[in-house]
Amino acid sequence: MPTVGMIWAQTPGRVIGRDGAMPWHVPEDLAYFKTVTQGAPVIMGRKTWESLPERFRPLPGRVNVVVTRDTSKTLPLAEGGALTASSLEDALSLAGEHTYDSPAVWIMGGGAIYSEAVEKGLAEIAAVTQIDLDVDGDTFAPQLDPQEWTLVSAMPEQGWETSQSGTRYRFETYRRMRPAPHAPA
Ligand SMILES: NC(=O)c1ccc[n+]([C@@H]2O[C@H](COP(=O)([O-])OP(=O)(O)OC[C@H]3O[C@@H](n4cnc5c(N)ncnc54)[C@H](OP(=O)(O)O)[C@@H]3O)[C@@H](O)[C@H]2O)c1
């Protein structure tokens, strides 16, 4: 079974989105996202798919799996180059059939999907970019319970990098050390 990871960027207030987009510009984080997910299947909610500029979707070099409950969206999503699933569990199964040589599949948002993955204990890794900005948002990352999730690496180890845009950021990786309370036995 491939490792299931989640990848997101958040502010200290855990904001990940506003009005269907990320309310910051940190190109180094987009490059990091590309490096981490390249070659692996990516799973996203329908709204995150729609937040991607049309010219960038499906994300190249990755099988794109989109989760929707709306069967009327299956055909347009397929025409747009995505595989679709009607639940997160089905999306993980489908992604698992398309890993090729990749050791991981990546859940790439948005808020609804991350929350479900954390609540159900479906992921083992969280790659979290900390964005040092105080901004309002309407979509939030889930809280990673420190009893369950441990910081295993950070770049830089101390402090921040500064983006070419001037915003400070830092890449953190967390690993889930014990089952989530609501995970199936
Ligand atoms: N900062 C970051 O790293 C990051 C990463 C990704 C996204 N974002 C931001 O997050 C925002 C989008 O997140 P969001 O929470 O609003 O939406 P989302 O999670 O991307 O998509 C929600 C949609 O996914 C489908 N869905 C969710 N759970 C499902 C389930 N269990 N089974 C079947 N379908 C399911 C539903 O689609 P239907 O309505 O079609 O049924 C639902 O409306 C945007 O602002 C985006 O920019 C930020």
Give an account of the 3D structure:
- The chain has 185 residues and is α/β, with parallel strands linked by helices.
- The protein has one domain: Dihydrofolate Reductase, subunit A.
- The protein is 22% helix and 29% strand.
- The chain has helices spanning 27-37, 46-51, 74-79, 88-96, 111-119, and strands at 3-10, 15-17, 42-45, 64-67, 83-85, 104-107, 125-131, 139-140, 149-155, 161-162, 168-176.
- Strands 1, 3, 4, 5, 6, 7, 9, 10 and 11 form a nine-stranded mixed β-sheet that branches. A two-stranded antiparallel sheet has the order 2-8.
- Strand 10 (161-162) and strand 11 (168-176) form a beta hairpin.
- The protein is globular, with a radius of gyration of 16 Å.
- The two termini are 17 Å apart.
- The mean pLDDT is 95.
- NADP nicotinamide-adenine-dinucleotide phosphate binds next to strand 1, strand 2, strand 3, helix 2 and helix 5.
- NADP nicotinamide-adenine-dinucleotide phosphate (NAP) binds at residues 8-9, 16-17, 20-22, 44-48, 51, 67-70, 73, 86-88, 108-113, 116, 139.
